[in-house]
Design brief:
Layout: H1 2-25, E1 31-35, H2 39-51, E2 55-59, H3 70-75, E3 83-86, E4 95-98, H4 100-111, H5 119-149, H6 155-175, H7 188-197, H8 211-221, H9 224-231, H10 245-251
Parallel strand pairs: 1-2
Antiparallel strand pairs: 1-3, 3-4
The protein binds glutathione (GSH).
Glutathione is lined by residues 38, 40, 62, 67, 79-82, 99-100, 251.
Length: 259
């Protein structure tokens, strides 16, 4: 009886080891990253690089109107990149996600990295992630538009958004005075902001007025994954003139399209 049991155990062991080995050697199917090299795109390329997740970049050339391709709209109905398709989503089934904040949170939950599992830690990150999504991102985006691309020069609009970006830099600088990163530890909130603050010169801001923010920017940009994320697809943008009326015709003056 005892011998029989021992025999069975000896038989069972290698089988278990085999199935484990199978699991660890099976390659994860790559995530499709619908992407163009802009601060919103960088958020996700940085996170994928930081997590070491396999991914395939699917360029969405927004200057040519590829964000309106019907197949892309099925994934991203707001005709904006970034978006992802993860073939190994919840329940082992494929999932598509648009909106960079939602993608960052998803990848954070999926990997358990750069997004704390405890509620207090998570709230800390969420506050600064949403602050980016509703604050520095859209405000810096409007500033960029009125300062660099608008067909008429509108000093009131430029000043309004330049002031607002300046105020937001001040908020970030104060937050970073007594902690290394926005939520204490490096997180998806920092990844969301770095591409925007990196454009301080173009936003007519003086980073030396914000010493804590300057230190943060240098620290985040020194990370190899951030460098790789912010270099992704830059070559595809070469030679595109954002002042070309054809490009502006695609990107500006968009109105609802009949479905
Ligand atoms: N709230 C969106 C904003 C994304 C966004 O504005 N993407 C821009 C590039 S930075 C885009 O795809 N623009 C295409 C267009 O304007 O048609 C997000 O965070 O994912």
């Amino acid at each position: 009886m005892v011998r029989k049991k021992a025999k069975r155990a000896a038989k069972a062991k290698p089988a278990k080891a085999k199935s484990k080995a199978k699991k660890t050697t099976a390659k994860a199917a790559p995530i499709d990253l619908y992407y163009w090299a802009t601060p919103n795109g960088f958020k996700i390329s940085i996170m994928l690089e930081e997590c070491g997740l396999p991914y395939v970049m699917k360029p969405v050339n927004i200057s040519k109107g590829e964000q309106f391709n019907p197949d892309f709209l099925k994934i991203a109905p707001n005709n904006r990149m970034p978006a992802i398709v993860d073939p190994q989503g919840p329940g082992g089934r494929s999932i598509s996600i648009f909106e960079s904040g939602a993608i960052l949170q998803y990848l954070g939950r999926k990997t358990g990295k750069f997004y704390p599992a405890d509620e207090r830690g998570r709230v800390e990150v969420d506050q600064w992630l949403f602050w980016q999504m509703g604050g520095i991102g859209p405000m810096a985006g409007q500033l960029n538009h009125f300062k660099h691309y608008a067909r008429e020069t509108l000093p009131y609009a430029i000043k309004r958004y330049e002031d607002e970006v300046n105020r937001l830099y001040g908020v970030m600088n104060t937050r970073l005075a007594d902690r290394p990163f926005l939520a204490g530890k490096y997180s998806i909130a920092d990844m969301a902001c770095v591409g925007w603050v990196n454009l301080w010169k173009r936003q007519d801001q003086n980073i030396d007025d914000f010493p804590h923010l300057k230190r943060w920017l240098e620290t985040v940009k020194a990370r190899p994954a951030v460098q790789r994320g912010m270099a992704l697809g830059m070559e595809l943008r070469q030679g595109i003139d954002m002042k070309d009326p054809k490009v502006q015709g695609v990107l500006f003056g968009q109105r609802a399209r009949a479905s």
